[in-house]
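Quick start: read one record
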Amino acid sequence: MRVKEIVDSKHPVIHGSDPATRARALVRTYGLRILPVVDENDKLQGIISRRNLLAISSSVSPIQVKGIMAEPRYVASVEDDAYSAVKQMIRLDEWSVPVVDSTRDKTYHGVLVLGEFIEAIIKSSPEKLVKPVSTIMSTNVVCCSPDDEVEQVWRLMQEHSLSGVPVVKKNKLVGMITHKDLLDSGKVLPGFESKKGRFRASPKVDKIMKENVVAVESSVMAISVAKVMIFNDISHVPVIDEKGRLLGIVDREDIARLIVK
């Protein structure tokens, strides 16, 4: 399988001279992890991530895209082997990477997304995912409480390089909070600065978190979890026991790692 067979060629892009607030609107509207930045000749210039956008404290910021864009840690080429590309993504903890013509020709072609790779495997080689989630889940899970301040949880995400955190109360799973939830809520960082220049209190996690969380028990097969992720467009699936206590968590990277190992 080549990257060109699963690349998302319709993935939105933006230009360096566009306002950063437009980038934020695109990321929110389409639920993007990255937003490639291209020039007038469709050459890749850089990327905008959710993390870049969460650092903008104003909804009317004059900052341009080129002021916050970053150099991609990895760029795939259309003729690359998809398995090799995904292995590199996993190594770098990247779930979406831009795709160009070649290492010499930076003409933009789209984005390689772990979800597209997983979906292709579900259709072509589902036997690769016949293992219980207990064998691939992370058990050392970073959690938060519904009473924690959002800013505190954001910094926890930063510290541990996480895009989502389970919310636990009295040892039981009650929700999830993700980068996407933070962006969608408009509670941007740092400091939650008001229009008058004063700093207001950070909202609590329970005001932003998703409560109707899809969770599974540890005996469920990875193929079932992969289908849930793809068809419900979610990235993290908590693993719980029969009493709703959190045992672990599975994300798209865990599923992709099982496929390519």
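The two ends are 16 Å apart (CA to CA).
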